[in-house]
Amino acid sequence: MSVRTPTATSGLPLGSPAGRWLLVASILGSALAGIDATVVNVALPAIGDSLDADFATLQWTVSAYALTLAAFILLGGVLGDRFGRRRVFVIGVVWFAVASLLCGAAPNAELLVAARALQGVGAALLTPGSLAMIQASIAPEDRGRAIGAWSGLGGVATAIGPFLGGWLVQTLSWRWVFLVNVPLAVVVVLLAVRHVPESCDPGADGPVDLAGAALGAVALAGATWALISAGESGATPAVLVAAVVGLVAGTAFVLVERRARAPMLPLGAFRDSQFRAANLVTFVVYGGFGAVFFLLVVQLQVVSGFSPVAAGTALLPVTAVMLLLSSRSGALAARLGPRRQMAAGPVVCAAGVLLMLRLGPDASYLLDVLPAVVVLGLGLVTMVSPLTATALAAAPPEHAGMASGVNNAVARTAGLLAVAVVPAVAGLSGRAYDDPVAFDAGFATALWVSAATLVVGGVLAALTVRDDVLAVETGDRQLTFCAGVSGPPLATRVGADGRPDCDPVPLVTTTLEDPMPCTHLTDATPPIPLSDGCAECLETGQTWVHLRLCQECGHVGCCDSSPGRHATAHAREDEHPVIRSFEPGEEWFYCYVDDVALEVPDAPPAPSHH
Predict the structure, then answer these.
(1) Where would you tag: which of 36, 55, 76, 467 has the fewest CB atoms within 10 A of its CB?
(2) What is the pLDDT of residues 321-347, one digit of tens each?
(3) Beta-ladder partners of 589
(4) Residues sharing a CB contact under 8 Å with residue 214, sequence separation 6 or more, in sequence order
(5) What is the pLDDT of residues 24-54, one digit of tens each?
(6) Using CA atoms, how far apart are residues 235 and 240, in angstroms rounded to an integer?
(7) Could you please report the per-residue DSSP string of 142-181?
(8) Is 212 helix (H, G, I), strand (E, B) or coil?
(9) Contact 237/265 with Cβ under 8 angstroms?
(10) Kindly report the CA angle at 126 between 123 and 127, in degrees rounded to 5?
(11) Any bridge partners for residue 478, and if so which?
């Protein structure tokens, strides 16, 4: 395994063999979960015919995966921080592969739905770690490019999913949509075990919130079952019982999260009005998308007569637009503020959705499908980057990982509920996919509902989101301080150039004679370093990125961008709150308690490692 030695002072360069292999493992792992979130839609008509399944069962084939993924994705991030990101990532990949085998071998629809739920649990374990491994082990100067590559190539993989699924359905069988995951999972596990260094959060020592995860899953399951079943059979006693179970579990979830020592979902974050606004807008607009993406590929096959391959490629232009323009959209939001883009983007998406009303029995890809999906892609690219950046910027910097995980879970939950609700409102039930006329009428109704929902999302953004949420209020100068990951970091803060960046901490310039913003830096005299590298890394053979010197005792530890994060661990265990840089040419202090970085020009210079 080619990994930097413990005496190295930086993380894995992206251009090194170890850095490239780590990136490949992360992208392929993320692609497993991303592809399966989209590829199955193309196979739904074939699954229904093969297993004699009604429309509600097809809804569950999609919803079971989305339900467990949304319910457990925050827990997956916490488990990775606690027990090792690579370890949990590998467990998730293996779990996903076994569940994929069960899906491919399912003899009936009931076992297929159960296996899809297991697949979602595996995806919830592997997805947070796929990016957390990059954040923990890639050198800071390369991390932005690595995350960009992860996002871009992951998006390409997700876009290829429907095309691949269509080809497999058309040439082999719908079962290969699931079975193809197994060899890819074997490659991912081998790469991760051989090339990815282990990393964890030494400060993640609270109890794992298993009760919160279980209650969240029960709440989503009860609500989803009630909504799907109500569309088939109305408000039967069983539907009402499921709805009550979901409501009680949801209420208990909120109570547990309020009292938990280390909650899976820190409810205190929602006290910030902008965090609430960003996640409310996320819930509404992703609810608007959910049913469209679910129904579109079925409409193209059942009503318009497209082959599975042709239907699977219908949304490729959306991905192309996103890849070409996302960074520019993020940069524009950073300069002008996110409100206008978050308000306009959903309205443009609604226009694209309404253009899909033209997708009838004689629909042409070039004249009917392409204009609709291009407009939809333009709306998405206008909105997504500002929305993600707003959700992250509204949370405290130390909670950026949590904020990203919450926003991702909110989006997935909205899509899950949309797939349950909108078809019922549109009258799609029974074996509607066998009746092109009935399905076409239901699809049109679903489009109007989705478009109206998207417009509501745009109006909410215009009324609730502020342009200054992305502004830095602490001065022009900042110190890049990469915080640990307390939740699944599925996105990162977007800088002024539109690229992902680490969390900024205010850098305050002061003098020894001025009142200190930090009450814990009482003596700026540098201590004698106890070692020339991270003491713990030298003992265990781990790598590090940068070194920090404890201002009180001289302990040398690695920074929070390093896998071990030993400087932070030492500060917490020994209650020594102030560290200073141990890097050549860097003269700054950081206080964990006051969360401020200090530059003190008249302080005695610190030593640095050789």
Answers:
(1) 467
(2) 877 776 677 667 777 788 888 899 999
(3) 580, 598
(4) none
(5) 888 888 778 777 777 787 888 888 888 888 8
(6) 6
(7) HHHHHHHHHHHHHHHHHHHHHHHHHHHHHHT-TTHHHHTH
(8) helix
(9) no
(10) 75
(11) 506
CA distance linking residue 359 with residue 373, whole number of Å:
11
Q: How far is Cα 312 from Cα 359, in angstroms, rounded to an integer? A: 15
Amino acid at 296: L
Burial class (CB in 10 A: 0-12, 13-18, 19+), 608: middle
Domain 268-474 adopts which CATH fold?
Growth Hormone; Chain: A; (1.20.1250)
CATH architecture of 478-599: 2-Layer Sandwich (3.30)
In the numeric block, the tokens 């020994």 are attached to 574
Phi, psi (degrees; rounded to nearest 5) at 324: -75, -35
Q: Which two tokens stand for residue 400?
A: 């950026």
Question: 577 near 598, Cβ under 8 Å?
Answer: no
Helix (H, G, I), strand (E, B) or coil at 195: helix
> Mean of the pLDDT values across residues 348-352?
93
Q: What is the Cα–Cα distance from 598 to 586, expressed in whole angstroms?
A: 11
Given a contact cutoff of 8 angstroms between Cβ atoms, the answer to whether 492 and 147 are in contact is yes
Residues making up the chain, counted from first to last: 610
Report helix angle 85-105 to 109-137, nearest 10: 160
Listing DSSP states for 194-235 in one string gives HHPPP---TT--SPP-HHHHHHHHHHHHHHHHHHHHHHHH-S
Q: Give residue 432's identity as a one-letter amino acid code.
A: A
Comparing 195-199, 260-264, 368-372, 413-417, the range with the smallest average pLDDT is: 260-264
d(CA 495, CA 501): 6
**CATH code of the region 12-205:** 1.20.1250.20
Pairwise CA distance, residues 508 & 581, whole Å: 15
Burial of 324 (0-12, 13-18, 19+ CB in 10 A): exposed
**Is the pLDDT at 454 greater than 90, yes or no?**
yes
Q: How many Å apart are CA 309 and CA 425, to the nearest integer?
A: 29
φ, ψ of residue 594 in degrees (nearest 5): -85, -10
**pTM score over 0.70:** no
Position 485 scores a pLDDT of 27
For the chain, give every domain's residue range: 12-205, 210-259, 268-474, 478-599
Contact predicate 319/158, CB 8 Å: yes
Same fold, 268-474 and 478-599: no
| Residue 115 and residue 232 in contact, taking contact as beta carbons nearer than 8 Å | no
